[in-house]
Amino acid sequence: MKVTEHLSNAKDTLFSIEILPPLKGQNIQMIYDALDPLMEFKPPFIDVTYHREEYILKPRKDGGYDRMATRKRPGTVGICAALQNRYHIDPVPHIICGGFTKEETENALIDLNFLGIDNVLVIRGDHLSTEKSFKPEPNGNNYATDLVQQVVNMNHGQYRDDSLQNAHPTGFCIGVSGYPEKHFEAPNMKLDLKYLKMKIEMGAEYIVTQMFFDNQKYFDFVETCRAEGITVPIIPGLKPITTRKQMHVLPSIFHIDLPDDLVDALDDCKDNAAAKQVGIDWCVQQSKELMTKGVPVLHYYTMSKSDPVLNIAKALF
Question: Which residues pair with 95 in a beta bridge?
Fold first, then answer.
């Protein structure tokens, strides 16, 4: 079932989560161990992130180095199939620009279509840690808008090989990301919203936001989107803080602000156990306020660790 169908059928706010694939060499059991406790809250869909290739330098016997490509967290498509089989839940694989040619993207989408997966979340993805800015693969998609267009084309039966006769159209429900505090590469919110609206006009059907810790920023973002004519569902993305270090790391990585009250509470914590409880309590209060405003879904970034989100869900659902 499509995400938009889940939303339209829901009578109350839904509960959903995002997980990371295991590191290469680890077992999928770690995913099951994280998800099993959350199943009592009946998430209708689960996002599974996709990770691009990175490069490592492997030392040679002669003292030199070989540059080798590696993907630290492979398995997104396989995990989606496993989630369908084990939980009978709709997986939402992320589809990214970085590290993939258009041909590879098309083949991945064909695999997902064969598996009966109805949803994709389309994002550009991050640049390599060794690069200052995002660089697409040769013959790859440069922007999320390009990637949205490729999925839309396949939904219309248009593949890269235009000589195909009677090509079967896919039927993906396309989600895209939104940034209540602006994407860090956008010069201002106005231009950021211009490209977000473009993706919606191209065929994207819902938006999932970057994490935020101040609900007013989400409310303002939704209001601004509506004023710009963006009418699709806007799902709030939430993450409970679990360590003291995260009050510095999260703003640096995700280019977000933390409210003064939250920073003060975390700064007063003597250890990570106390910080984790502060993070859970803050996220519970965020979630309660969002629920009173009638948000369609509360979407939690779990980092494949269920304990904090389990405590939050128990307080809400």
Answer: 122
Model's pTM, two decimal places? 0.92
Contact assessment for residue 103 and residue 150, using Cβ atoms and an 8 Å cutoff: no
Q: How far is CA 12 from CA 2, 212, 253, in A?
A: 17, 22, 33
- Cα 192 to Cα 210: distance, rounded to the nearest angstrom: 13
Based on C-alpha coordinates, what's the Rg of the chain? 20
Provide the H-helix boundaries in 156-271.
189-202, 215-227, 246-254, 260-267
What is the sign, positive or negative, of the torsion defined by CA atoms of 103, 104, 105, 111?
Answer: positive
Which residues are CB-neighbours of 239 under 8 A, at least 6 positions away?
Answer: 211, 250, 283, 300, 301, 303
Give me the CATH number covering residue 10. 3.20.20.220
- pLDDT value of position 71: 63
φ, ψ (nearest 5 deg) of residue 306? -90, -25
**pLDDT interval class at 130 (50, 70, 90):** low
State how far the Cα of 117 lies from the Cα of 77, in Å rounded to an integer.
Answer: 10
For the chain, what is the domain count? 1
Which residue range is the domain that position 245 belongs to?
A: 3-316
Sign of the dihedral through C-alpha 105, 110, 115, 119: positive
∠29-33-35 over CA atoms, to 5°?
Answer: 115
CA distance from start to end of the chain: 22
Q: Which is higher by pLDDT, 13 or 69?
A: 13
pLDDT tens per residue across span 12-44:
999 999 999 988 888 999 999 999 999 999 999
Does 285 score more than 80 pLDDT? yes
Q: Residue 163, SS3?
A: coil
User: Is residue 209 scored above 70 in pLDDT?
Assistant: yes
- Phi first, then psi, for residue 45 (nearest 5°) are -150, 155
What pLDDT was estimated at residue 87? 97
The most distant pair of C-alpha atoms in the chain lies apart, rounded to whole Å, by 66
